[in-house]
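Before relying on records like the one below, remember that each one covers exactly one chain. Contacts with other chains, cofactors or solvent are not represented anywhere in the record.
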Amino acid sequence: MERYDAAIVGGGIIGLATAWRAQQRGLRVCVIERGEPGGGATHAAAGVLAPDEELGALAARSAGLWPEFADELRDSTGIDLGYTRCGSLLLTFDEADVMGDWLDGDACRALEPGISPECVGGRLVASDAQVDPRRAAQALVSALGGALRPHSDVVELSLDELELADGSRIGAERIVLAAGAWSARRLARRLPVRPVKGQTLRLRGPLPATRIIRHEHVYVVPRASGETVIGATIEDAGYDAEVTEEATAALLLGARRAVPAVAELELVEAAASLRPGTPDERPLIGEWEGLLVAGGHYRNGILLAPITAEAIAALLAGEEPPAEIAPFDPQRFD
């Protein structure tokens, strides 16, 4: 039986980044992924890096780590992650929503001429950024090399051993559960994680804006590559990850209302994935029943990847993790 310092179950951006940081500490790691590494929620994500105020210092610290994280991966692998601090513009179509520090509609259109004439106000968040999650996953896969075990489904786990669907076993000093929405389905049924379906769209053509444009749950993310990503639905659909025409139509309608030029773009891809939600919509980072858990990131998995990876890698190495993870102890639900 192969043995490792750490076996990480789940090859999305959280599991991959954690393995990379652990490797840098000299640990021998293995990442077990049921599909393709970087698939699932990472593959569908838009990569908006907009710190959620409810996540406080954790989100702020992780957003601050992203520039160095992206540069380090680029220097190591030659892959540009598309990180850019482009800013966001949050729009409203209701006068009642306009706050004292908000811009009026004309000021919004001065910044972004493509915004709808129906927009009556908005708030500029200059610090918001974006990254291409698919490139990030590609770079992490490249950096990890032979540490990856794709298309390997874990069917049973204990505190120091995994059994795969093909009957093989992997031993480890510590096991990290980073399997996203799938963490609780078979592997750790008591873990308070549930699937939350999200659908996103990718379009090609002239960029409709220079910043991320957000309105309610719809966001429009223009990339320098010529791709525009639109997201995202929030659906309680169990483990159904099928794309639906209804969601595609609703996303396009919402995006076109905010930025009419979206109507001129070519739809090239619709994707659906399962995000890992928790009862309080906050992540689970730390010790849980003898395992290490890096999960429950819901809509913030890309944003929180650097801080989560740093925290779990520190715990694996016997170091003190960042203080910002303390409110997100998985044992808060015991």
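The mean pLDDT is 96.
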